[in-house]
Amino acid sequence: MRTTVPAALAALVVGISTAVLGAAPAHAAAVFLEANPDTVRAGDQVGLRASCTDNLKNAAVAGDPLGRVTVRPNVAFLTATTRVPAGTEPGTYRLTLTCPDGSSATTTLNVVARVEPARGPATGGGGTADGRSAPLMVGGGLLAIAAGLALAVVSLRRRRLG
Fold it and tell me: Which of 5, 92, 139, 154 has its CA 20 to 30 A from that of 55?
């Protein structure tokens, strides 16, 4: 009974204070612009996600290297997908969202150089390579398998006998 009295008292205080003071006013949605990914190679696609105070109207995103892109309403946000031109120089570019009501937001888009690797990565320890250690590894593996089989036979025989 002691635990329910403070809880009921707290609920009563909160309820009365809300009724007397009124509910807090709703705040407008934040105005923002995101580029995903924010670091791309020239020629790759980039997704834009934005929010204005009214996400039911189209807005515009402008800036090098994308030019002017229209972001359209899509599930409570403004979205668009565009491609960074293949000839874009590496660097940091500022993108600016302009909402229909005049509010704006900015983000940065980092463009990096498109580099193609000359050869595959040098990975692994070379344990499977030919050499002095290969016969030792194969022998050790076969010995481990034989020990496992012997242990299985012994445990099966004990069950039958015991």
Answer: 92
User: What single-letter DSSP state applies at residue 145?
Assistant: H
* Cα–Cα distance for residue pair 17/52, rounded to 1 Å: 33
Non-local (6+) Cβ contacts of 32 within 8 A are: 50, 51, 97, 105, 107
How far apart (Å, rounded) are the C-alpha atoms in residues 35 and 49?
A: 7
Of 27, 31, 67, whose CA–CA distance to 49 is shortest?
31
Per the listing, tokens 């009563």 go with 12
The closest alpha carbon to 93, from 101, 102, 85, belongs to 85
Residue 59 in this model has a pLDDT that exceeds 60:
yes
Tokens of 40: 């791309």
Write the Ramachandran bin of 118: left for phi over 0, alpha for psi from -120 to 50, otherwise beta: alpha
Q: Whole-prediction pTM value?
A: 0.56
What's the maximum distance between 2 C-alpha atoms anywhere in the chain?
Answer: 88
d(CA 89, CA 65): 9
Please write the tens of the pLDDT for every residue from 10-26.
555 555 655 555 544 44
Domains of the chain: 32-112 (2.60.40.1930)
Under DSSP, is residue 144 helix (H, G, I), strand (E, B) or coil?
helix
What values do phi and psi take at 32, rounded to 5? -150, 165
